[in-house]
Amino acid sequence: MDTHSTDHPRDRSGSAPASCPVRPVRVLVVEDEPDLAEVLSGALRYEGFQVRTAGDAATALALAREFRPDAVVLDWMLPDADGLQVLRGLRAERAAVCVLFLTARDAVEDRIAGITAGADDYVTKPFSLQEVLARLRGLLRRAGMARQPDDGEPIVVGDLVMHEEAREVTRGGQVVELSRTEFELLRFLMRNPRRVLSKAQILDSVWSYDFGGRAHVVELYVSYLRKKIDAGRTPMIHTVRGVGYVLRAEPR
Length: 252
Ligand code: CA
Known about the structure:
By secondary structure, the chain is an alpha/beta fold. The chain contains 8 helices and 12 strands.
């Protein structure tokens, strides 16, 4: 199973607690100005992200397929396409990817187009690196992908409560005992409530595997989780036929 050891090094100096994601967050930097690409990727690497860079749209889309980024920092003006085209291509490839785009300060129409097309946030050029990092962390946090060992707040979805650091889960006040993998799976679901997650997304985020037809692993663990979370209660884990699963508190 450990065919991707270079993708999730386990020797990362031990600073990340056990409750953190098992692999570094992957960021693709798409920027045609080499100096800027260098500065951005350097800063992101320093912050612990796994980074790849692309200088044009075609390379960006090819890399998105191969590298499977969690987030993309996307310059809006590229030599072979505009940000809108790249954004659509990225979303087609990886629906849940976080996209932060970079645009000129006076390019109001580009910003509107970007947000309308589903980019998550933007930063105007010239930007401060601190702002790019802060916005990127904000996106990843909202997407449930940030490492936040100092965040003591429980995750709450309906009557389901997860204390990440204590690795404790309760539903309706009753403690639910989970295995490590069940816990990680539930954490991913709880960090993305009401969002339909494909089996590929779940596998990628919880197990760090390439999909490669391992849907049965996800199905198996979802069935375990249902027995512990949902049995005898109002179901929260719902199957979306042909797509994946969604966690929600309120019945539809
Ligand atoms: Ca540019």
